[in-house]
Design goal:
The chain is mostly helical. It is built from four helices and no strands. It has helices at 11-21, 43-71, 76-97, 115-120.
């Protein structure tokens, strides 16, 4: 490291100072997606919705085809798991539209509790 480079341990304090200088950004440490803000819009949103639907269908189709091949029950497991894959894909789309992201459960993620950090630090 160069002599004029600040130590990496000081990174959080430098980031907080930089955010405090920008209007409307004071105390904000997470981006909107991870903090449960509004969902993305435009192409990114459309691609994520499409990917969620296609992934659910393909995974359901693959599991059903594998079980049919293994158990010899063609085409019943494939039909069953295709329907389950569609349901999983639609549930992921709902979670994306509702702004739940990858949080566990069916509630929006809560903002982190910063009051405890201020008392401790």
């Amino acid at each position: 490291m160069a002599a004029d480079t600040p130590p990496p341990e000081d990174l959080d304090a430098r980031l907080q100072r930089a955010l405090a200088r920008q209007p409307g950004m004071a105390g904000r440490t997470q981006d909107r997606a991870s903090a449960g803000g509004s969902p993305p819009t435009g192409w990114g949103f459309g691609l994520r919705v499409g990917a969620d639907l296609i992934a659910g269908l393909l995974v359901g189709l693959g599991i059903g085809y594998g079980l049919d091949f293994w158990l010899g029950t063609k085409p019943w497991m494939m039909v069953l798991f295709l329907i389950l894959g569609m349901a999983a894909g639609l549930m992921n789309v709902y979670r994306t539209i509702a702004g739940m992201g990858y949080a566990v459960g069916y509630r929006r993620p809560e903002a982190p509790d910063t009051s405890r950090q201020e008392k401790d630090g």
